[in-house]
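Lecture notes, unit on protein representations.

Consider one protein chain, 226 amino acids long.
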Amino acid sequence: MNQLHLGLVSLIVVGACGGSVVVEGTGGTGAATTGTGAGTTGTGAGTTGTGAGTTGTGASGTGGSTSSGSCPLSPPTTSSCAGAPDQLRCTYGDSVRPECRVEWQCLGGQWLTQNGSCSQPPPGDCASSEPSPQTVCTTMGDVCTYGDSICYCGCGGGPACVSPIDWQCASPPTTPGCPAVVPNDGTPCIAAGVQCNYGTTCTPSNAIVSCTSGFWKWNTMIACGG
């Protein structure tokens, strides 16, 4: 213990661990008593439990394996279409023009495919905005899109055609349950019995689609008279 006298004031400093500092007032030198307390530290044991998690992986239809008449989520990667109904037809892509989609079909246990016939109009044939009905066009067979609308240069309603040829334009269907852009053949649907018409009937850019047994199906047997 160190003791320092400063006139009438006595300052006692105790440097021991757990000690105290006592300041004495006037009246002489006082004694400081220092007590050291013992500290007890207890360490508790912690228990950590780890739970087991189980992750299940479901099977998908990718790669040519299908069920219940549904198409693979992406184009098949194998030639076999075992398990799929014969003549199941699937299309892939997101073009507004139905004829630009890529087609796959299951025939005799094998996937067969063909690219869409998606020719582009010559530069300048498509106007900057959708033409008014019966506006004369220049190149037979041109197809131009404006948003989700499809315009075909030619004659709608059949193969017979006389000059002048003009634009046949069709906006997206307004029937409840019909998407604005044609859904791919063989994809799931919930609007049972709904039929949707895209593009002008009996033109190459036409698709008539119906929701049948939970899947969109394209009508590929359209009869167009002359």
